[in-house]
Design a protein that fits this description.
Strand order of the largest sheet: 14-17-18-13-12-20-21
CATH class of the largest domain: Alpha Beta
Helix content: 25-40%
Oligomer: single chain
Distance between the termini: 63 Å
Number of helices: 15
Low-confidence stretches: none
Number of strands: 23
CATH architecture of the largest domain: 3-Layer(aba) Sandwich
CATH superfamily of the largest domain: Aldehyde Dehydrogenase, Chain A, domain 1
Mean pLDDT: 97
Shape: globular
Radius of gyration: 23 Å
Length: 493
């Protein structure tokens, strides 16, 4: 896609957002809220705010569709064909979806094209292909008994997705849930709902029956709470903050004990040993691992641990690589660092930098707001050295373009520092020593450990964490387990 096409799409008016309930677009009882673009602070459109009653109607619609069997009992080949059509439509509308998403959440367009519609289309194809390739089991029983193990859809899935990559992460949850025959009620983030509303339009066009896929927008304190407290949602899947994840667990306990699968972010260590195969390449990758999408990535390598013997040289290379990255208008194809999602998020990021300074960290690059004259929300990529394990910046997730750098002397110390956090989502290790690489993979408590790279894992492998990074795994065939129940048939012959 060329820049002229992007510029044209970026000038088009955005329709006001409504709720999708039972195949119909309706207004929300909670009124409307403005959608503010982080690019320039201007209002793009308005978004419907669902009331608790609206959420109840969406859940009831999903339940009715599920019980009718129009989707849940459709032949696997039928569901497969519909999801392939949806993937086709996503690909056909890639430019529109990418630009709409960037206007809504500030991700740089060069990343959004691949990470949002590109990734979503691939995810729907992956799970479409899996539908008719999953088999039940026959248990090894005595000769007079036949034991069968069936996989059945769970029923109604509530999905709550974040604002950083709404289409990508939304697809990680919607696609496997629909593939297994479930109905879905989706709640997008308040600051990034537009592409998921458009996805819902495409799902209806592809042939997903009315009521099987519903979308309710609005503030989490109303919409998300109603979904969490619903007595008729069977499974709740969520990506977002730990504080919200805890509330969802509480809602599940207070309602029907629905299963909750939570992906709650991280404070991921990126560990660089002196024997890394290419320290220059590692520095460039470390910059991308934290500063692309303005650091708003759950697996971002936000803690850089560097062996002391190469620390100063590596930080110099890192600083040069960071300065070479272009921060600017997210709709410019040459931009590598886009906007922060909201003014609230920007203020939080700057608060972390202030605390880092007060605790003894040295801000060697960035640290402030930039491009304020545009009206948008932008922050200089920020590198803080001399960060100790007791510092807030070492322990807490910023979800912004702020990198904490800490030296280490031995492999054992690197492991201790890597694990010195409540999170356990991702990690990176740079070394030429194959034995050390395997030791680090086993020793670091994280759901994903990258070796001599950072990021890029595709749909064939799961993404999930340990400790307070949650308990849910997206991607791969393992994700299907969340959306199915096992039923045993015990037959006396």
């Amino acid at each position: 896609m060329d820049q002229a096409r992007i510029d044209d799409l970026a000038t088009r008016p955005v329709p006001r957002g409504q709720l999708l309930i039972g195949g119909r677009w309706v207004d929300g009882e909670g009124g409307e809220t403005p959608v503010i673009s982080p690019i320039d602070g201007a209002q793009l459109t308005t978004l419907a705010s669902a009331s608790a009653q609206d959420v109840g109607r969406a859940v009831a619609s999903a339940r009715a569709a599920f019980e009718s069997g129009v989707w849940s009992r459709m032949a696997p080949a039928g569901r497969k064909a519909v999801l392939h059509r949806l993937a086709d439509l996503i690909e056909r509308h890639t430019p529109e979806l990418a630009v709409l998403g960037v206007r809504d959440n500030g991700t740089e367009i060069s990343m959004a094209l691949k990470a949002e519609p590109g990734s979503a289309a691939g995810t729907f194809r992956y799970y479409a292909e899996a539908i008719d390739k999953l088999y039940g089991e026959i248990a090894p029983t005595a000769p007079g008994v036949l034991g069968l193990i069936h996989r059945e859809p769970v029923g109604v899935v509530g999905a709550i997705v974040p604002w950083n990559f709404p289409l990508m992460i939304g697809a990680w949850k919607i696609a496997p849930a629909l593939a297994m025959g479930n109905s879905v009620v989706l709640k997008p983030a308040e600051t990034a709902s537009l592409t998921l509303l458009r996805l819902a339009e495409l799902a209806l066009e592809a042939g997903v029956p009315p009521g099987v896929f519903n979308v309710v927008t609005g503030p989490g304190r109303v919409t998300g709470e109603a979904l969490g407290l619903s007595m008729d949602v069977d499974v709740l899947v969520f990506t977002g903050s730990g504080a919200t994840g805890r509330r969802l667990l509480d809602y599940a306990a207070r309602s029907n004990l629905k299963r909750c699968y939570l992906e709650l972010g991280g404070k991921s260590p990126n560990v660089v040993f002196a024997d890394a195969p290419d320290l220059g390449a590692a520095a460039k990758a470390a910059a991308g691992a934290i500063f692309r999408n303005a650091g708003q990535v759950c697996v971002a390598g936000s803690r850089l641990l560097v062996e002391r013997s190469v620390h100063d040289a590596f930080v110099a290379n890192l600083t040069a690589a960071t300065k070479a990255m272009k921060l600017g208008n997210p709709l410019d194809l040459t931009t590598q660092i886009g906007a922060v999602n909201s003014e609230t998020q920007l203020a939080g990021n700057l608060g972390f930098v202030a605390d880092a300074r007060s605790e003894g960290g040295e801000v060697i690059l960035g640290g402030g707001r930039v491009r304020a004259e545009t009206g948008g929300f932008y922050m200089d990529p920020t590198i803080v050295t001399n960060v100790a394990p007791a510092h807030r910046l070492f322990r807490e997730e910023v979800f912004g373009p702020v990198l904490a750098v800490t030296p280490f002397d031995t492999e054992d110390e690197a492991v201790r520092l890597a694990n010195a956090t409540d999170y356990g989502l991702a990690a990176g290790v740079w070394t030429s020593n194959l034995s050390r690489a395997h030791r680090m993979i086993r020793a670091i408590r994280a759901g994903v450990v990258h070796i001599n790279t950072y990021g890029g894992a595709d749909a064939t492998v799961p993404l999930g964490g340990t400790k307070q990074s949650g308990n849910g795994h997206d991607k791969s065939l393992h994700a299907l387990d969340k959306y199915t129940d096992l039923k045993t048939a015990w037959i006396q012959l």
